[in-house]
Amino acid sequence: MIPEHDARQAIALAGQGANVSEIARRLGHDRKTIRIYLNGHRAPGQPRPHADSYAPFAAYILQRTADDRHLRGAGLHLEITALGYAGSYSALTRELRGHGITAACRTCKPWQPVTPAPGQRPALLPVRVAPITGETTSSYLARTAAASHLPLSAITDVLPPWFAVRAAACDDIAKPGLLQPGDTSCLAALTGIAETALRHALPALAGHRDDGRPPVRATIACRRCAARHGQHDPVPVHLPAHQRTCQRHPAWLGRAIQINLAAVPGITRAGKQASRLARQHGITRLVLAETTARQETASGPGTRQRAAELALANPGLDPEHPDTAEAAAYPDTIKMAVALLSTPGALPAGPE
Ligand SMILES: [Zn+2]
Ligand SMILES: [Zn+2]
What we know:
The chain has 352 residues and is mainly alpha-helical. It contains 17 helices and 5 strands.
């Protein structure tokens, strides 16, 4: 908050045609603060909304930290600031502590520095292994080695050192800058899989914005998709943070369980609509709308009906399981998310 007199002066200067940078310089406040007054997000003299700035994001934060345990405080702060959170980083960490949320993974080891080796193209392996969408580096390299009856080290020894580091890492999409040009083509030469296909399937190779972690959820690949690849053990993947369904089968990809959705096609349709909404509004904004909506939709009559239908079609499925409940509420959740996304003021406004 800036003194009321300064805020009024900022608005007057803007009225005379001064831009944000000029006003910020002249009054000695930062541009972000000046914008808050010029956009009308806060009236002159009105205190900063400290107490309740966390509340609209509480459900979002719970979901994101549960879905991606490598999303640390700083990354989370970047995400919610872009969605309109007004608090500082230290205010957020205070809130996280207060709510008992520990964002950081406890099993991660510090990164070893990687020295790029002189490039040498490895020989093609006898067995071709296609990557599964979203697969982690360690999973893909381990499957590739096993298919050719080789130890993992036989593969990492002939690849650039980046791969050995990633294969050993708990979180293979951190610090994306370490990937050297040409590294992916070495993997392509070894596996016989096209570079574009590798980059498309393996998030660690995709290359990310430098300013943050991509919004992903760590989960297990659709079991039936993995089985098509001859893979019967769970395959760890990073999926876009909003993606809850496999459209091909169709299946609900919950936190703990996967549910066959054939009996309740409305849930699969909602998944398709969610993909469209994510393209239109951005992944994190959609997740914010969903987590806000779910507080209303979790106990509706449609939700109870669908939970019963799912349990009937999936023997042994607990209709009260949190994943079942979330799947059953999903068509209503997405319907309400659409309303929230299209109603001005229904969700916190972004910073601009
Ligand atoms: Zn970790
Ligand atoms: Zn599938």
